[in-house]
Design goal:
193 residues, alpha/beta, 45% helix, disordered C terminus
Length: 193
Protein backbone atom coordinates (compact mmCIF):
# COMPACT_ATOMS: atom_id res chain seq x y z
CA UNK A 1 0.00 0.00 0.00
CA UNK A 2 1.24 3.44 -0.89
CA UNK A 3 1.13 5.79 2.09
CA UNK A 4 0.47 9.06 0.29
CA UNK A 5 0.24 11.99 2.70
CA UNK A 6 -2.26 14.79 2.30
CA UNK A 7 -1.32 17.53 -0.13
CA UNK A 8 -1.28 21.18 1.00
CA UNK A 9 -4.91 21.75 -0.03
CA UNK A 10 -5.97 18.63 1.86
CA UNK A 11 -4.09 19.78 5.00
CA UNK A 12 -6.07 23.04 4.78
CA UNK A 13 -9.31 21.01 4.66
CA UNK A 14 -8.13 18.96 7.66
CA UNK A 15 -7.34 22.16 9.60
CA UNK A 16 -10.84 23.44 8.86
CA UNK A 17 -12.35 20.12 10.01
CA UNK A 18 -10.33 20.33 13.25
CA UNK A 19 -11.63 23.84 13.92
CA UNK A 20 -15.26 22.83 13.31
CA UNK A 21 -14.90 19.65 15.39
CA UNK A 22 -13.32 21.44 18.34
CA UNK A 23 -16.18 23.94 18.31
CA UNK A 24 -18.79 21.17 18.19
CA UNK A 25 -17.10 19.33 21.07
CA UNK A 26 -16.82 22.56 23.08
CA UNK A 27 -20.55 23.15 22.71
CA UNK A 28 -21.51 19.52 23.35
CA UNK A 29 -19.41 19.10 26.51
CA UNK A 30 -19.68 22.76 27.61
CA UNK A 31 -15.89 23.25 27.53
CA UNK A 32 -14.67 26.82 27.76
CA UNK A 33 -11.58 28.04 25.94
CA UNK A 34 -9.57 28.04 29.18
CA UNK A 35 -10.76 24.51 30.03
CA UNK A 36 -9.36 23.16 26.75
CA UNK A 37 -5.88 23.48 28.31
CA UNK A 38 -6.75 20.51 30.54
CA UNK A 39 -7.20 18.35 27.48
CA UNK A 40 -3.63 17.70 26.48
CA UNK A 41 -3.75 16.49 22.90
CA UNK A 42 -2.37 17.12 19.47
CA UNK A 43 -3.59 16.16 16.02
CA UNK A 44 -0.98 15.27 13.42
CA UNK A 45 -1.23 13.97 9.88
CA UNK A 46 0.96 11.39 8.17
CA UNK A 47 3.99 13.59 7.38
CA UNK A 48 4.49 14.36 11.09
CA UNK A 49 4.08 10.81 12.40
CA UNK A 50 6.75 8.39 13.56
CA UNK A 51 6.68 4.91 12.03
CA UNK A 52 5.02 3.35 15.11
CA UNK A 53 2.23 5.95 14.88
CA UNK A 54 1.20 4.78 11.40
CA UNK A 55 -1.34 2.08 10.65
CA UNK A 56 -2.96 0.90 7.44
CA UNK A 57 -6.07 -0.43 9.19
CA UNK A 58 -7.84 2.63 10.62
CA UNK A 59 -8.56 6.30 9.90
CA UNK A 60 -6.72 7.36 13.04
CA UNK A 61 -4.63 6.04 15.88
CA UNK A 62 -4.74 7.52 19.37
CA UNK A 63 -1.42 7.33 21.17
CA UNK A 64 -1.12 8.05 24.86
CA UNK A 65 2.16 9.43 26.12
CA UNK A 66 3.23 10.31 29.64
CA UNK A 67 3.95 13.79 28.31
CA UNK A 68 4.05 15.46 24.94
CA UNK A 69 6.84 13.87 22.87
CA UNK A 70 9.89 16.11 22.82
CA UNK A 71 8.75 18.26 25.75
CA UNK A 72 11.10 18.71 28.66
CA UNK A 73 8.87 18.96 31.70
CA UNK A 74 9.59 18.95 35.39
CA UNK A 75 8.85 15.79 37.35
CA UNK A 76 5.94 17.58 39.00
CA UNK A 77 4.21 17.98 35.62
CA UNK A 78 3.27 14.45 34.64
CA UNK A 79 0.04 13.81 32.84
CA UNK A 80 -1.41 11.96 29.94
CA UNK A 81 -0.89 13.47 26.53
CA UNK A 82 -2.99 12.14 23.66
CA UNK A 83 -1.79 12.28 20.10
CA UNK A 84 -4.39 11.77 17.41
CA UNK A 85 -2.48 10.31 14.49
CA UNK A 86 -4.43 10.92 11.29
CA UNK A 87 -3.84 8.25 8.68
CA UNK A 88 -3.96 10.32 5.47
CA UNK A 89 -3.50 7.32 3.19
CA UNK A 90 -6.44 5.39 4.67
CA UNK A 91 -8.69 8.46 4.47
CA UNK A 92 -7.60 9.17 0.89
CA UNK A 93 -8.40 5.58 -0.04
CA UNK A 94 -11.94 5.93 1.41
CA UNK A 95 -12.56 9.19 -0.48
CA UNK A 96 -11.23 7.72 -3.74
CA UNK A 97 -13.24 4.52 -3.32
CA UNK A 98 -16.60 6.20 -2.66
CA UNK A 99 -17.39 9.25 -4.80
CA UNK A 100 -20.21 10.28 -2.42
CA UNK A 101 -17.70 10.75 0.41
CA UNK A 102 -15.83 14.05 0.45
CA UNK A 103 -12.75 14.92 2.45
CA UNK A 104 -14.14 17.70 4.65
CA UNK A 105 -17.18 15.88 6.07
CA UNK A 106 -15.19 12.66 6.51
CA UNK A 107 -12.34 14.37 8.39
CA UNK A 108 -14.87 16.35 10.47
CA UNK A 109 -16.46 13.02 11.43
CA UNK A 110 -13.11 11.42 12.27
CA UNK A 111 -11.81 14.37 14.31
CA UNK A 112 -15.09 14.75 16.20
CA UNK A 113 -15.02 11.04 17.02
CA UNK A 114 -11.42 11.18 18.24
CA UNK A 115 -11.98 14.32 20.33
CA UNK A 116 -14.91 12.64 22.07
CA UNK A 117 -12.49 9.88 23.05
CA UNK A 118 -9.94 12.41 24.32
CA UNK A 119 -12.54 14.20 26.45
CA UNK A 120 -13.82 10.90 27.85
CA UNK A 121 -10.28 9.77 28.71
CA UNK A 122 -9.34 13.14 30.23
CA UNK A 123 -12.54 13.27 32.33
CA UNK A 124 -11.96 9.65 33.42
CA UNK A 125 -15.31 8.62 31.96
CA UNK A 126 -13.39 5.85 30.22
CA UNK A 127 -10.01 4.33 31.00
CA UNK A 128 -7.52 4.36 28.16
CA UNK A 129 -6.03 1.02 29.19
CA UNK A 130 -8.88 -1.43 29.05
CA UNK A 131 -9.72 -4.89 27.83
CA UNK A 132 -10.65 -5.58 24.23
CA UNK A 133 -14.30 -6.00 25.28
CA UNK A 134 -14.26 -2.64 27.11
CA UNK A 135 -12.61 -0.97 24.11
CA UNK A 136 -15.29 -2.44 21.83
CA UNK A 137 -18.07 -1.15 24.11
CA UNK A 138 -16.38 2.27 24.30
CA UNK A 139 -16.06 2.42 20.53
CA UNK A 140 -19.79 1.73 20.16
CA UNK A 141 -20.62 4.46 22.71
CA UNK A 142 -18.37 7.02 21.02
CA UNK A 143 -19.66 6.07 17.59
CA UNK A 144 -23.23 6.66 18.84
CA UNK A 145 -22.25 9.98 20.47
CA UNK A 146 -20.51 11.11 17.28
CA UNK A 147 -23.56 10.25 15.22
CA UNK A 148 -25.86 12.02 17.71
CA UNK A 149 -23.71 15.15 17.71
CA UNK A 150 -23.17 15.35 13.95
CA UNK A 151 -26.63 14.42 12.69
CA UNK A 152 -27.78 17.92 13.69
CA UNK A 153 -24.86 19.56 11.91
CA UNK A 154 -25.29 21.37 8.61
CA UNK A 155 -21.97 20.27 7.15
CA UNK A 156 -22.49 19.66 3.45
CA UNK A 157 -21.82 16.02 2.58
CA UNK A 158 -22.10 14.83 6.19
CA UNK A 159 -25.33 12.82 5.70
CA UNK A 160 -23.47 10.66 3.15
CA UNK A 161 -20.61 10.09 5.62
CA UNK A 162 -23.01 9.24 8.45
CA UNK A 163 -24.86 6.79 6.21
CA UNK A 164 -21.67 5.18 4.90
CA UNK A 165 -20.13 4.68 8.35
CA UNK A 166 -23.21 4.11 10.50
CA UNK A 167 -22.23 0.49 11.17
CA UNK A 168 -18.48 1.08 11.20
CA UNK A 169 -16.79 0.21 14.49
CA UNK A 170 -13.13 0.51 13.55
CA UNK A 171 -12.30 4.20 13.60
CA UNK A 172 -8.95 4.09 15.38
CA UNK A 173 -6.50 2.16 17.48
CA UNK A 174 -5.54 3.00 21.07
CA UNK A 175 -1.87 2.66 21.94
CA UNK A 176 0.09 3.75 24.97
CA UNK A 177 3.80 4.54 24.67
CA UNK A 178 4.49 2.13 27.56
CA UNK A 179 2.50 -0.67 25.95
CA UNK A 180 4.14 -0.01 22.58
CA UNK A 181 7.65 -0.29 24.01
CA UNK A 182 6.75 -3.45 25.94
CA UNK A 183 5.27 -5.03 22.82
CA UNK A 184 8.28 -4.02 20.76
CA UNK A 185 10.68 -5.39 23.40
CA UNK A 186 8.94 -8.77 23.39
CA UNK A 187 8.29 -8.83 19.64
CA UNK A 188 4.51 -8.60 20.00
CA UNK A 189 2.30 -6.99 17.38
CA UNK A 190 0.15 -3.96 18.17
CA UNK A 191 -3.52 -4.59 18.92
CA UNK A 192 -5.64 -3.55 15.98
CA UNK A 193 -9.19 -2.70 16.98
Amino acid sequence: MIRAPFEIEMIAVLAQAIEVSEELISDFYKISTSEWKRYRYDIQSLKSLDEEEITDLAFAQIRRYVRRPGDKTRGSEPGDFFKICIQDHVIRRAVERDKDIRLFPLTAYIITHELIHVVRFAKFIQRFDSTAAEQDAEEKRVHALTYQLLQKSRIQGLPEVLAAFKDCRTMENFLSDQIFHERKQYGLKDHQE
